[in-house]
Design goal:
Structural class: mainly beta
Number of strands: 7
Order of helices and strands: EEEEEEE
Distance between the termini: 22 Å
Oligomer: single chain
Radius of gyration: 13 Å
Number of helices: 0
Largest sheet: 3 strands, antiparallel
Shape: globular
Length: 71
């Protein structure tokens, strides 16, 4: 469910016009390099980046201190 505890998390949003958005109620579930579930304490400032023919999401998080995540 949507958390309102003051800690930022990343949720998937959908929009047909880039103005009006609907967001999923569950935050995005992360996994570590071994495929095990991992939820950072916080995750924020996501960006979609295209590198050649692939898209990646990068974000700021708290992986044992301030860090950047990529998926």
């Amino acid at each position: 469910p949507l958390r309102l505890n003051g800690r930022p998390h990343i949720y998937l949003g959908h929009s047909k016009d880039a103005i009006n958005w609907e967001f999923d109620k569950e935050r995005i579930n992360f996994v570590d390099e071994d495929g095990k579930p991992y939820q950072p304490l916080y995750a924020y400032d996501p960006r979609l980046v295209k590198v050649e023919d692939e898209y990646f999401v990068i974000w700021c998080g708290d992986f044992d201190g301030a860090a950047i995540g990529i998926a």
